[in-house]
Design goal:
Radius of gyration: 19 Å
Distance between the termini: 45 Å
Transmembrane segments: 6-24, 31-51, 57-74, 132-149, 179-200, 220-245, 265-282
Helix content: over 70%
InterPro entries: ABC_transp_permease (IPR001851), LivM-like (IPR043428)
Keywords: Cell membrane, Membrane, Transmembrane, Transmembrane helix
Strand order of the largest sheet: 1-2
Main location: membrane
Membrane topology: Multi-pass membrane protein
Shape: globular
Strand content: under 5%
Order of helices and strands: HHHHEHHHHEHHH
Amino acid sequence: MIGYLVFLAISTAIYALFCLGLNLQWGFTGLINFGHVAFMTVGAYTTVLLSLQGVPLILATLVGMALAALLGLLMGISTLRLREDYLAIVTIGVAEVIRLVVNNQDLPIGKEWKSGVFGVQGFPLPLGGDKPALMVLALLVLFLVFWLLERFVRSPWGRILKAIREDEEIPKALGKNVFWYKLQALMLGGAIAGLAGAFYAWQLTTVYPNNFEPLVTFDAWTIVVLGGAGNNIGTILGTIIYWAYDAVTRFVLPQIMPLDASRLGAFRIMVIGLILILLMRWRPQGILGKKEELTLGK
């Protein structure tokens, strides 16, 4: 039981990091990113592959974050001067391209490598056998990222992001480079998601392309919408609720409903959808969101 609680704490911290990146992009800046999992994929695989080459884990993680930010730069340069829907289309397309590319590549098999469909197993992981230590580290990093983001979004930089979200013509009229601010938000949010990917790899100690399907992105959207877009505390609260729901239904529903595993999983997703429908009906801004800052439907 304790082991499962540690797993829940690590998973919650990882998803909170992942969703904070999305909240910066969409909740604060209004950028519709349906391929957020691409940044996590880059961070996870970079950490794994560099670790296999003997690169220190911290350095491998930083490189993964940098490459995730670079991916945000490339996506932003090609789309941010166009309409919002172009960014949404490109991001989900890039995420699938990255997943399919790694799914169809083979790694050289040696004594340090074990490769299936680009799945890397058994890479040297100092924290891999010490989940409580990994939990403490993940929570500390989450707190640090949250603290820094709060300072950023309350600064003049953050106020410009909010102005862009509301009506980008106003900051343009004030002489602000809207394109550059959007690019910064996309890159920083991508770097944070890359960091989440590194922790995800540390937790699993094995990564496969199926770990990074589009559903991961839409889980993040569910969490941000639930907690309240444009509110970092709300994002963390939404993550806690999401994983609490996952844990409770995983153990309680089988006792109540005599369904097989596949039908039970479908039912759990259906309930999440129902909850979101009710939330959008009665509180579209989310639990801690502000209605005047609502970005849905803009």
